[in-house]
Specification:
The protein is α/β, with parallel strands linked by helices. Helix content is 37%, strand content 19%. It has 9 helices and 13 strands. It has a 7-stranded parallel sheet with strand order 3-2-1-4-5-6-11, sandwiched between helices. A two-stranded parallel ribbon has the order 7-10. The protein has a two-stranded parallel ribbon with strand order 8-13. Strand 5, helix 6 and strand 6 form a beta-alpha-beta unit. Helix 1 crosses helix 8 and helix 3 packs parallel to helix 5. The two termini are 34 Å apart. Bound molecules: nicotinamide-adenine-dinucleotide (NAD) and uridine-5'-diphosphate. The site of nicotinamide-adenine-dinucleotide (NAD) has 29 residues, from helix 1, strand 2, helix 5 and strand 5.
């Protein structure tokens, strides 16, 4: 029997790759997105696919639960949420509500149709961690009232709902935590380091390194992330589980690689305060 997958945030960077791979694996795919940060361009190659359907819909709406609670669905992947600080901080209240109500609506649909439901959580649930690398058992160090809280706390509350729906309603729910991911269709304007560096290098301009560039991050290629997400969804694992690249780069090394690959661009060090509340943090999954 053909499996049916519902992907919220399906027109986003990660969501569009997930939809593509699910179709490749023979699933019928229903994508939902309100185009807040996603775009039709990301899924235009899928729109004519006979097993693909798209709903321009808000995951927080009653319409969402009403529409999908009577359909045959095997898997729900909840990815709807702006992921980059520029976008999630522009509409912080919507960001928080998208995480919390979106998670609740996905869980209600999963309960009604008895689907396996998985939540795209984030390394940001660890906040400004005092433990490196962060094992899943680490509960994090999050500021509940800062400018990143709408995202970090929204994702934490979504995780809470996933575990409470398991305990209270026996929903087949699981949580994975994504670490920095890159690849085709990353939004140009999302302000994060990989896209910033590539865009500057392509323009033969300054690739701006904040501070000395010795801060480290891990970067996972989107195909590997999607593979991990699918393995997780197909398992009986509950999580939370970290998904990402266990190897780290300094930001200076990243600039060198991008300038070499693009063949243009110059390093420029900006010795101002780092732009992140997690400035000195080493980010990588522990497993
Ligand atoms: P993205 O912004 O490209 O995708 C998010 C999608 O959700 C967009 O298409 C957006 O339009 C849609 N969306 C937002 N609010 C919505 C709403 N209320 N209703 C319906 N659709 C809505 O971001 P991404 O990088 O593809 O991230 C996908 C998921 O993975 C997010 O939940 C994000 O928190 C998580 N994540 C991503 C990364 C990363 O490095 N890309 C890291 C950690 C976690
Ligand atoms: N960074 C940088 N130049 C840029 C953008 C980011 O040097 O143009 C640095 C930033 O200060 C941080 C790291 O790269 O130390 C990763 O930043 P990003 O915003 O991509 O991710 P996050 O801090 O959320 O992991």
């Amino acid at each position: 029997m053909t499996k049916v997958s519902l992907v919220t945030g399906g027109a986003g960077f990660v969501g569009s790759h997930l939809c593509e791979e699910l179709l490749e694996r023979g699933h019928k795919v229903i994508a939902v997105d309100n185009y807040y940060t996603g775009s039709k361009r990301n899924i235009e190659n899928l729109l004519d696919h006979e097993k693909f359907s798209f709903y321009n819909m808000d995951v927080t709406s009653k319409l969402f639960t009403n529409t999908f609670s009577t359909m045959m669905i095997d898997y729900i992947f909840n990815l709807a949420c702006p992921a980059s600080p520029v976008h999630y901080q522009k509409e912080p209240i919507n960001t928080l509500m998208t995480s919390v109500l979106g998670a609740k609506n996905c869980l209600d649909v999963a309960k009604a149709v008895q689907a396996r439901v998985v939540q795209a959580s984030t390394s940001e649930v660890y906040g400004d961690p005092e433990v490196h690398p962060q094992p899943e058992s680490y509960n994090g160090n999050v500021n509940p009232i800062g400018p990143r809280a709408c995202y970090d706390e929204g994702k934490r509350a979504a995780e809470t709902l996933f575990f409470d729906y398991r305990r209270k309603h026996d929903v087949n729910a699981g949580v994975f935590r994504i670490f920095n991911t890159y690849g085709p269709r990353m939004a140009k304007n999302d302000g994060r380091v990989v896209s910033n560096f590539i865009i500057s290098a392509l323009a033969n301009a300054n690739v701006t390194i904040h501070g000395a560039g010795m801060q480290t991050r891990s970067f996972c290629y989107v195909d590997d992330l999607v593979d991990g997400m699918l393995k997780f969804a197909n398992s009986d694992q509950i999580g939370p589980i970290n998904l990402g690249n266990p190897g780290e780069f300094t930001i200076d090394e990243l600039a060198t690689i991008i300038i070499q690959k693009v063949g243009k661009g110059y390093k420029d060090r900006k010795s101002t305060r780092l732009n992140s509340s997690h400035s000195s943090v080493s980010r990588m999954p522990s497993s």
